[in-house]
Backbone:
């Protein structure tokens, strides 16, 4: 079922669903903006029509909602393609972008910053705002390099060692976070648990632009690794015979994937399940060609996260449900359904 | 010509290959023979530069051997099949043979070469099948089609001249018909100027297809000779098992208790 016809049906349906989700994301929220308003603003910006809306609607849409939807799209695409890259590299469909401990390590650093009140140490307001993000990003990178260094042996990255290192670092990060939770006060505890469940509530043009500038090039680089991942699925030695510089490519894929997760986790907290489930679902539905999986992870992942974020901010207006709860609540049953369906199809 | 000069390989203080010098010539089928653990597969992998030797030098014609990308255009390798979890289709696996040649998308030449390979190994009807649903023999033919497709620079058969094909026990999992087809393939490739180097366990198949035999025993070169020079004594020394010649270039282990004779 990988014929040209079935592929065009797939892409057309994907595009339709994606734009419906985008429209849903832009028109839903605690502040009412209808599809007519959306159309009017679009025409106004392109110079085709007079603006019929009041200033407040315009600024809610352009200053809050649009950056947030873009942020959701990029985070979803980043986490999904990172998951696809690591699943391909480890030849394990259960690999998660947090596999080598990056997310958990970053959370431990975040909890540390929250409990010590590090953001408050900076009197300059923009530093104050981003101190937590920057601190978390440094944490994520620290864990990434630690894991890679431990798994490094004579110019080669040993994947099994990296996997085990990840398990240890994940446990270490989780226990440090646990300890800090125990030591924290009520307000801090709330902040930590909010962090652990993820939120796009901090979205504005600055965060969105920062994420765009860093992640889009990384996503594009990772996208070119489809052939390499296919070759690696035959084992490292065979990939070498197919012309792949195995040592270099392994490092590249690990670093690119972890970098994507690091930037996302430092801006939005931990959003679970997306990076695991999106590439896996694509693989179950459309086969194991990594070129296809990487590319489609971007589309499916971004759509999935825009949807999840829209639900998270509309389901209990005026409050927001942490997005991590939505992604897991929606993702897990969907995942189970597809696994069961696939089991029947395989007849085993 | 691939030249191996005084090649040694030690892993964890164990000597796997010691001081081996030989060469592989385009247009010739070289078969490596020897008992289990003699280092046959290891020699094959070292010669193909899948493993770096710890001593000695290897030279390839007009290729920078430190570049996997360049090497992949002059030699291909059929490894013994290990378990790998893949949901790829047969066609995509054969396309991997073209990975060294195209950057982003395959061109008409790549597609034609892949189609020819699918045809050549009678797996065209399986093109869209996932690998996990293939039989052992079908999977082996798919891998053969992949390494075959990798030999071509362009769709002309002349573009495979002076390239090398390494095969580690290629007849595993193949029935007698496909075994014979593999022998035909090896002959056809050598006639078109490919250097074929393989590890075979079937002595008689080796004798009937090889242009040159390399005998390995305990990591040492035990002999390098023409198939016609093989005698019972040479095989007896190599395998530490008595042999008898039962036909023209047909050798069998001396069977003291054969089931057929037990009837009488």
Residues:
């Amino acid at each position: 079922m990988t014929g040209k016809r079935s592929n065009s049906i797939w892409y057309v349906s994907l595009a339709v669903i994606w734009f419906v989700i985008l429209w849903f994301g832009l028109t839903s929220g605690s502040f009412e903006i209808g599809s007519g308003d959306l159309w009017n603003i679009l025409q106004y910006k392109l110079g085709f029509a007079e603006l019929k809306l009041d200033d407040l609607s315009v600024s809610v849409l352009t200053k809050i909602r649009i950056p947030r939807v873009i942020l959701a799209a990029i985070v979803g695409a980043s986490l999904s393609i990172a998951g696809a890259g690591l699943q391909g590299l480890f030849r394990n469909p259960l690999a998660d972008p947090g596999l080598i401990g990056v997310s958990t390590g970053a959370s431990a650093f975040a909890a540390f910053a929250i409990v010590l009140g590090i953001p408050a140490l900076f009197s300059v307001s923009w530093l104050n705002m981003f101190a937590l993000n920057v601190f978390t990003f440094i944490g994520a990178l620290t864990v990434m390099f630690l894991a890679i260094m431990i798994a490094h042996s004579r110019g080669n990255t040993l994947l099994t060692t990296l996997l085990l290192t990840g398990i240890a670092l994940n446990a270490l990060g989780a226990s440090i976070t646990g300890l800090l939770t125990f030591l924290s006060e009520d307000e801090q505890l709330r902040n930590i648990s909010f962090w652990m469940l993820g939120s796009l509530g901090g979205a504005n043009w600055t965060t969105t632009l920062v994420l765009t500038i860093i992640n889009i090039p990384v996503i594009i680089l990772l996208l070119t690794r489809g052939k390499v991942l296919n070759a690696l699925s035959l084992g490292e030695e065979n990939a070498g015979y197919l012309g792949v510089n195995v040592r270099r490519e392994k490092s590249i894929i690990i670093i690119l994937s972890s970098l994507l997760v690091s930037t996302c986790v430092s801006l939005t907290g931990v959003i679970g399940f997306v990076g695991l489930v999106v590439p896996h679902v694509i693989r179950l539905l459309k086969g194991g060609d990594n070129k296809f999986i990487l590319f489609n992870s971007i589309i499916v992942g971004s759509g999935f996260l825009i949807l999840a974020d829209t639900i998270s901010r509309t389901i209990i207006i005026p409050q927001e449900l942490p997005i991590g709860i939505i992604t897991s609540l929606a993702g897990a049953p969907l995942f189970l359904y597809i696994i069961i369906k696939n089991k029947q199809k395989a007849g085993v | 010509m691939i030249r191996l000069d005084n090649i040694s390989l030690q892993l964890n203080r164990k000597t796997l290959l010691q001081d081996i010098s030989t060469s592989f010539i385009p247009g010739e089928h070289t078969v490596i023979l020897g008992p289990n653990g003699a280092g046959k597969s290891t020699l094959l992998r070292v010669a193909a530069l899948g493993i770096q030797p710890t001593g000695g030098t290897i030279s390839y014609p007009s290729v920078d051997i430190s570049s996997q990308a360049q090497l992949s255009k002059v030699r291909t390798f059929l490894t013994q099949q290990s378990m790998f979890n893949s949901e790829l289709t047969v066609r995509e696996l054969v396309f991997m043979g073209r990975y060294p040649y195209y950057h982003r998308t395959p061109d008409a030449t790549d597609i034609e070469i892949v189609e020819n390979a699918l045809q050549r190994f009678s797996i065209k009807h399986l093109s869209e099948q996932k690998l996990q649903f293939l039989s052992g023999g079908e999977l082996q033919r798919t891998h053969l089609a992949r390494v075959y497709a990798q030999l071509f620079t362009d769709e002309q058969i002349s573009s495979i001249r002076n390239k090398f094909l390494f095969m580690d026990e290629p007849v595993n999992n193949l029935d007698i018909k496909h075994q014979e087809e593999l022998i035909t393939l090896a002959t056809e490739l050598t006639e078109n100027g490919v250097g074929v180097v393989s590890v075979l366990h079937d002595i008689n198949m080796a004798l009937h297809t090889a242009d040159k035999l390399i005998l390995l025993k305990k990591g040492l070169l035990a002999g390098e000779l023409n198939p016609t020079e093989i005698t019972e004594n040479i095989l007896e020394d190599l395998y530490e098992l008595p042999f008898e010649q039962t036909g023209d270039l047909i050798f069998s282990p001396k069977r003291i208790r054969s089931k057929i004779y037990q009837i009488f």
Q: What stands out?
A: The two ends of chain A are 20 Å apart (CA to CA). Chain A has a mean pLDDT of 86. DSSP finds 14 helices and two strands in chain A. The beta strands of chain A are 152-153, 156-157.
